Amino acid sequence: MATPVTSSQQRLVGSEYLTWTKRRAPVRYNLARSGVPRLALERLHLTLEDLLHNDNAEDGWRPLMECIAGRQGLGPEHVVTTHGCSMANHLAMAATIERGDDVVVESPVYEPVAKAIEYVGGRIVPFTRHAENRWHVDVADVKRALTPKTKLIVLSNLHNPTGAYEDHGTIFDLAKAAEPTGARVLVDEVYLEFFRPHGARTGVRLAPNVLATNSMTKVFGLDGIRLGWVLAEPELAERARRLNDLFSINTAHPSERIAARAFDHADALLAESATLLLRNIDVVDAFVREHDQLSWAKPRAGTIGFIQAAEVDVDRLVDDLHAHHEVALVPGRFFGAPDGFRIAFGLPTDDMREALTRISRALKARAS
After folding, report:
1. One domain, residues 26 and 112
2. 3 state DSSP class of 326
3. At 153, is the secondary structure helix, strand, or coil?
4. Quick one: average pLDDT of 322-327?
5. CB atoms closer than 10 angstroms to residue 364
6. Dihedral pair phi/psi, residue 299, rounded to 5°
């Protein structure tokens, strides 16, 4: 006889945030989408062989793995290619966490990361990034959150949702703090390339117990190819490859070829998007300064920031903007920070200004 399915087994296991954002109607000014404008594939001078290839590269296409690794000063044995950064995070957690392990996690946190930790059986132990510290990690706070069962410390760099950047010294100190329990440090680096002009490189270079995830989505505007990766020391990378046999086996070979072509133009693409984003960050900063109830820690780079809104019902504001002003934002409750909203900077600057004008109108209407 079949075992009945209980109500607890029927509960939704996925991401509330991703379900919410996928089901929202499109709007003209999307400040919820956190990448750069989508890249026109014709700019990569692709061939029919790139697009119509029907081969599988099994454990990863070597030329792409060399591109990814070489850009960070590593060897291809450190690279595991995956279907996007979300799968990279899932795979990294599956390779490092066993059911019942403690996982020390930043707060605010990107909700799908927390959900993935719970799904693989980890117990979340939060440490807080504080607004008064410009959302930076305080290593002392992390140390206080560690337990004898800690096997992983998880953070994002640049931080999602605030855009805060952690330097090499902070990542190294976290790696040292993790050593006594044999823990590792997982850094979601999907936005980190925006800090490359400032000397940023992957934290994996700093210590053997650091692993990182990334993708072609946020920086290069190639979300449609769903190409991500894990960077780790070779033994752990091999464990992740074998676990990936249970998830997706290998990545789509046309996506691998498109990604490799994008790496041929990586610095030019990054410089182009950085010009737009830095201009828009200044535009948003001026907007925040015009409103007494708003505050933020201005990011130095990247596509996202977090605006705190004093005495504002953020969820109602977000819904009103979406329904009546054609503007999309992400309410902070999806990051465990309900007092504000995440805003993205990837629109053309004229569109960015218009969207902010509409947000101002909505704020003033709610205050009157």
Report:
1. no
2. coil
3. strand
4. 98
5. 10
6. -70, 150
Same domain flag for 176 and 29: no
The last residue of one of the domains, among 230, 264, 298, is 264
Alpha carbon 110 to its chain centroid, in Å, reads 7
Where does residue 278 rank: exposed (0-12), middle (13-18), buried (19+ CB within 10 A)?
Answer: middle
Domain containing 109 — which CATH number? 3.40.640.10
* 283: number of Cβ within 10 Å: 17
Structure-token match 């990107």, residue found: 110
Structurally, how many domains does the chain consist of? 2
- What's the one-letter identity of residue 177? A
pLDDT of 2: 36
Same domain for 170 and 65: yes
User: Under DSSP, is residue 293 helix (H, G, I), strand (E, B) or coil?
Assistant: coil
| Contact indicator for 308, 338 with CB cutoff of 8 Å | no
3-class DSSP assignment, residue 130: coil
Does 360 lie in the same domain as 219? no
CATH code of the domain covering residue 328: 3.90.1150.10
Q: What is the pLDDT of residues 264-317, one digit of tens each?
A: 999 999 999 999 999 999 999 999 999 999 999 999 999 999 999 999 999 999
Q: Tell me, yes or no, whether 40 lies in a domain.
A: no
Q: State whether residue 179 is helix, strand or coil.
A: helix
pLDDT for residue 350? 98
84 and 173 in a single domain? The answer is yes
Local structure of residue 100 (DSSP, 8 states):
T
Structural domain for 332, as ranges: 13-34+267-367
The helix (run of H) or strand (run of E) holding residue 306 is strand 304-309
Over residues 61-73, mean pLDDT: 96
- Proportion of the chain above pLDDT 70, given as a percent: 96
